[in-house]
Design goal:
This protein is an alpha/beta fold and about 375 residues long. Helices cover about 25% and strands about 25% of the residues. It contains 10 helices and 24 strands. An 8-stranded parallel sheet has the order 8-11-12-13-14-15-16-17, sandwiched between helices. The chain has a 6-stranded mixed sheet with strand order 3-2-7-22-23-24, with no helix packed on it. It has a 4-stranded mixed sheet with strand order 5-4-1-6, with no helix packed on it. α1 crosses α2 (about 100-120) and α5 (about 200-210) crosses α6.
């Protein structure tokens, strides 16, 4: 048995902190958190203070390391994207294909099948479109948007069976309640997003099995006192998870703090980056469906915009969202870490990730007290 013992840092197990303890990893899995006296035989990894946590999980990553998935939906692209985010603590992510052609979606599905098998940080696939609402298109191409058809339902179910974890963002206007129910029963994770729907339409789909909402507040019907919209339905529905982009540009911190206080039931808010190719890259622009997206520096982090000023994804990484949560959203460090680990794991059904419990994958990140990443591990091996 190949065993490693991590000592010297506070250990966050996904629920609480352990001080003056050691994390024991055996054959790539967490074995135990134990007292530091009487350690078992194995390689000792000594950390200089800070926090040792489960690696971060990002359910929405369009690009990184200079590569957009839409530019080349391949295994190589997925590996580059995962590698681009790993220095920022993300050890599991869903490469995300934004609205594109049927051919691009099929290529992304085929690539994800192989990338997941490689076990290098790609945990599944997120298809954000083409079943979105033109009225809330954001940076997506409205001309490619369309309703869900029966052939799409069958294709998504086959893809989920082959990949394991498939997240699909759909507008309530583009998918029927019956289709949501069939997909959810087959294990496809449905998130409602880029939608101008009523709160009632959203609730019907949540009750049918849609598990979440894609980037709460952005590209959706807003909360009104007589028309609560998708925002109101998501916050009020007790089982609905909500991804949030905490970068200082997509949502005002006052709105995020309000949502954090108001969210009802067991469903939680969790961090996503919605990152584009410039994370992990020194470039200042890239192309998206033939349009130039430029990096504008300033604020908590840079923002990415089209020529008309429309936000086009984010330039934030996952550890930065944790710092943002602690600094601007009144979150404890424990809750901010849960929003990057335990909660997205639960949303996606990744039972062996997001926590340091016996049997969990030893995907780890070490943070300084200032919340910068010093190292990551995949399956207990330095990455």
């Amino acid at each position: 048995m190949k065993r490693k013992i991590f000592v010297g840092a506070r250990i966050f197990d996904g629920e609480r902190f352990h001080d003056d303890k050691a994390l024991v990893v055996a054959d790539g899995r967490v074995e135990a958190i134990i007292a530091r006296n009487g350690l078992p035989d194995g390689e000792t990894v000594t950390l200089e203070g800070g926090v040792l946590s489960a690696g971060f999980i990002d359910a929405q990553v369009n690009g990184g390391g200079g590569r957009m998935l839409n530019d080349e939906p391949s295994v190589a692209s997925m590996d580059i994207i995962a590698g681009g985010h790993r220095p920022y603590g993300t050890t599991s992510l869903l490469p995300t294909l934004i609205t594109d052609t049927a051919e691009a979606s099929a290529a992304a599905i085929e690539a994800a099948k192989e990338a997941v098998k490689a076990n290098r940080g790609v945990a599944g696939l997120h298809l954000e479109g083409p079943h979105l609402a033109p009225a809330r298109k954001g940076a997506h191409l409205a001309e490619l948007m369309r309703p869900v058809e029966d052939r799409d339902v069958k294709a998504f179910i086959r893809a989920r069976e082959a990949i394991g974890t498939l997240l699909v963002t759909m507008a309530a206007e583009q998918v029927t309640v019956a289709q949501v129910r069939e997909l959810a029963e087959a294990g496809v994770t449905i998130s409602i997003g880029h939608s101008d729907c009523s709160s009632e339409a959203a609730e019907e789909r949540f009750d049918a099995g849609a598990r979440g909402v894609t980037h709460l507040f952005n590209a959706m019907s807003q909360l009104g006192h007589r028309a609560p919209g998708l925002v109101g339905a998501a916050i009020d529905h007790p089982s609905t998870w909500c991804g949030i982009i905490a970068d200082g540009h997509h949502v005002d911190p006052k709105a995020l703090r309000t949502a954090l206080r108001a969210k009802r039931g067991e469903g939680k808010l969790f961090f996503v980056t919605d990152a584009m190719s410039l994370v992990g890259s020194e470039k200042d622009s890239f192309t998206l469906n033939g349009r130039t997206v430029r990096r504008e520096r300033g604020g908590f982090c840079s923002k990415l915009v089209l020529s008309d000023g429309t936000l086009a994804g984010s330039d934030v990484d996952m550890v930065s969202t944790i710092r943002y949560g602690v600094t601007y959203l009144d979150l404890t460090l424990a809750e901010a870490l849960r929003m990057a680990t335990l909660y997205p794991a639960r949303f996606l059904g990744l039972a062996d990730r997001g926590q340091l419990a016996p049997g969990s994958r030893a995907d780890l990140v070490h943070l300084t007290d200032g919340l910068t990443v010093t190292a990551t591990w995949l399956g207990g091996e330095a990455a």
